[in-house]
Amino acid sequence: MGVEGCSKCIKYMLFFFNFIFWLAGGVILGVALWLRHDPKTSNLLGLELDGAQAPNTFYISVHILIAVGAVMMVVGFLGCYGAIQESQCLLGTFFACLVILFACEVAAGIWGFMHRDTVSKEMITFYDTAYDKAMTQSLADPNNKQPATAVLKVFHETLNCCGKGLGTSFITKITDTLGMTDLCPSGSQKVNCHHRINELFSDKIYLIGIAALVVAVIMIFEMIFSMVLCCGIRNSPVY
């Protein structure tokens, strides 16, 4: 016979929240793997120009998410098992793991908020460098396909955009029409690539932020329930 009354209710509530936590870990792991292998981001972040690799800040964040998702699944299982077995040792270990995870999540959230525009800015700078080099090389020798031209066309075809802004987009389309360059994809929309890059990475950053907020709320409830259950087990006459 184990805990009774309110403690028994807390026990099953903790099991339920741990199960949700375990599922959330699986979802985060799945989303992180999707972000890592998404065709658009993979095409852009795998580019190389004059020996310089495309900025990998986004991938660093994604790899951290993969690790967090895996750890959450392990900790969630530990919490479920500890709640069902009414083990003070397992619940105490679970609580300690939650505190560490919560502290790491808060620190990562602060860092992410402070650097939320870094990924987009780095990619825009990389794009601008490729654009300037490709335009210069193409106007000098339209028949000579340089690496910068290949990098730029990957951006344009992947994002269905052209140019750094409305003016450069218009100019590039004119030079393409006149046969002086071959940079914009045929039938591309009149959208500049700065807008597309911001749209691509900002949406993904907000998705990560929402997931982190939901997990943080679940973790707070779990820490409260695990301590209440641990105290209930300690005060139970059976133990």
TrEMBL record:
Protein localization: Basolateral cell membrane; Membrane
GO molecular function, one term: lipid binding
Cellular component GO terms, alphabetical: basolateral plasma membrane
Annotated family: Belongs to the tetraspanin (TM4SF) family.
Membrane topology summary: Multi-pass membrane protein
Iron keyword on record: no
Species of the source: Seriola lalandi dorsalis
UniProt keyword Magnesium present: no
Gene Ontology BP, a term: adaptive immune response
Identification of the protein by name: Tetraspanin
SUPFAM superfamilies in the cross-refs: Tetraspanin
Keywords: Adaptive immunity, Cell membrane, Disulfide bond, Immunity, Lipid-binding, Membrane, Transmembrane, Transmembrane helix
Major place of residence: membrane
Bilayer-crossing regions: 12-35, 56-84, 90-113, 205-229
